[in-house]
Amino acid sequence: MNIKKILAAVLTISALSVMQITAVSAAPGMTISVQEVKIKSGETKAEATLSASGSDTVTNGKIRIKYDPQKITLKSAEVGEALKETMTQVNEPLTGNKPEGEIVLVFASAEPVSLKGAMLDMEFQTGSGFDETSGAEIEVAVEELGRDGADLECTAVNGSIIVEHADAGEEDNSKTDNTQEKSQEKTVTAKSVKTGDDTKIWIPLAGAGFSLVLYGILKAVKSAPKGK
Predict the structure, then answer these.
(1) Which residues contact 186 (CB under 8 A, 6 or more apart)?
(2) Cα separation of 152 and 144, whole Å?
(3) Burial classification of residue 92, based on how many CB atoms lie within 10 Å of its CB (0-12 exposed, 13-18 middle, 19 or more buried)
(4) Is the pTM of this model over 0.90?
(5) Other CB atoms closer than 10 Å to residue 137's CB: what's the count?
(6) Which DSSP string do the residues of 2-71 spell out, in sequence order?
(7) What percentage of residues in the chain have a pLDDT greater than 90?
């Protein structure tokens, strides 16, 4: 077989493979988060929302929310507009299904739906352990997120309740910034049950493999005897 034809075929396959890898790595994902909630000094009520963003569609999910019951307690939990077309179940302390400090949201749909907007609207009451200088964290863990039996990767972002002082000076602003940094540091990427860690380490390895193959073929072409 002509060496040049082999080289052209390998180059074509390599290009198609790289295009496929790029498409996979750029696939859209979901972000499920609780936003930062700011309340004024002396206020005891804080309204927080679990929300979703991203272009993926889903059919089922399970999300666990945790918080320090010494700092805040749950007063209400209502399913949001993002889940209006799904079957939902909320296990929380108000119904006695979960101890104070934990909420579990489960949803399922017969058809893929787009999760955009509020998934769960919550109202919290600050308790005796709530410190206005440090606030309270609301942890988000996505334990399941799928579409038609396939697992979807997503990013879970923790939220927080902080006190915003009306006459805040530089010192108070510094405290607020520190709280925001702590919340950002606890942003986690949910792992897919089937794919494990979502680090795309195989992409550079695949590129290196293609380079080695091309190098070998080019070397063979140079060393091959020239035809008449």
Answers:
(1) 137, 139, 158
(2) 8
(3) buried
(4) no
(5) 21
(6) -HHHHHHHHHHHHHHHHHHHHHHHT---EEEEE-EEEEETT--EEEEEEEEESS-EEEEEEEEEEE-TTT
(7) 56
Task: Name the DSSP class of 98.
Answer: S
18-76: pLDDT as tens digits: 444 333 333 457 999 999 999 999 999 999 999 999 988 999 999 999 999 999 999 99
Tokens of 152: 């979807």
- Going by C-alpha positions, the residue among 103, 91, 107 that lies closest to residue 64 is 103
Q: Indicate the pairing of strand 102-114 with strand 36-40.
A: unpaired
Nearest to 61 by CA among 24, 26, 90: 90
Sign of CA dihedral 171, 134, 119, 188: positive
For 151-186, how does the pLDDT look when each residue is reduced to its tens digit (9 = 90+)? 999 999 999 999 997 664 444 555 445 544 444 444
Amino acid identity of 159?
Answer: G
Amino acid letter for position 206: A
How many Cβ atoms sit within 10 Å of the Cβ of residue 185? 9
What's the whole-number average pLDDT of the chain?
76
